[in-house]
Amino acid sequence: MSHCHYTQELTGIHHLTDGLPMTALTHFDAQEFLNTFFSLFVALLLGTAIGAERQYRQRNAGLRTNALVALGASAFVDLGMRLNGNPGATQVLAYVASGVGFLGAGVILKEGTNIRGLNTAATIWCSAVTGAFAGADHPVEAALLAAFILGGNTFLRPLVTLIERAPIDESATEAIYEVHVTAVETKRDAIRDLLIEKLEAAKYPVGDIEELDRDDEVELVATLSPSSVEADELDAVTAELAALDGVLHATWSSRRSD
After folding, report:
1. What's the pLDDT score for residue 227?
2. pLDDT tens per residue, range 221-237
3. Average pLDDT over residues 62-74
4. For labelling, which of 32, 62, 88, 111 has a CA lying 20 to 30 Å from the CA of 251?
5. How far, in Å, CA of 234 to CA of 216, rounded?
6. CATH topology of domain 170-256
7. CA 17 centroid distance within chain
8. Where are the domains of the chain?
9. pLDDT digits (tens, 9 = 90+) for 167-218
10. 42, 134 Cβ separation under 8 angstroms
11. Which residues partner with 220 through β-bridges?
12. What is the pTM of this model?
């Protein structure tokens, strides 16, 4: 490479970079900077308060997650406002809501029929809105929302416990009911017919029957069609089934519908 060509390349790079630091400095606004600092500080502070409660209860998304979600939401909204005013903040909010939705989905775990993490995901969602309030220069509203989030996660817990400990009215629950009958293999068909007959006589039509083979035994699992259920009536039906010749065991169970 000739000396002249090398010099031309250096000159071109100099022209490309010339003025960039000065542009950044001319765009610096001390008042806007302090406003951004305050917004981010409020978001981080309130997100930390929300996350501390989650961390104390040893949830998947704890202190740092909620603090960073609030901080990030605040930064996005603040930047949107600085670039395009209130319309910019409105546009950014839509993307924040979408992005936080994916983040919340990551903390939801399904283990068999049990689902964990829904409350944590909802808390992350609210942390983002708290940060958005702070980023939009509404610190009082952000603090109010954070107080409501902490209050909901703290003071509603005793109510949840009270409801879960209350006696269950089987007729009022939305659940899937199953009748389980274990019988000897040689009487599979006869017991199956009697199972359907006795359930229908008790006004509990059978939606489906699953047969589970176990050596010389078979378990018949009858899923009832959706209807109101009286626990005493099902107890009576299973007692009759248990007394039949060839039936080894009979019971019923319920589980939450999806």
Report:
1. 66
2. 998 876 667 888 889 99
3. 82
4. 111
5. 27
6. Alpha-Beta Plaits (3.30.70)
7. 48
8. 3-162, 170-256
9. 655 555 556 788 999 999 888 899 999 999 988 888 888 888 888 888 889 9
10. yes
11. 181, 211
12. 0.49
pLDDT surpasses 50 at 6: no
Q: Which two tokens stand for residue 52?
A: 């501390």
Q: 120-132: b or e for each residue (b if 16 or more CB lie within 10 Å)?
A: bbebbbbbbbbbb
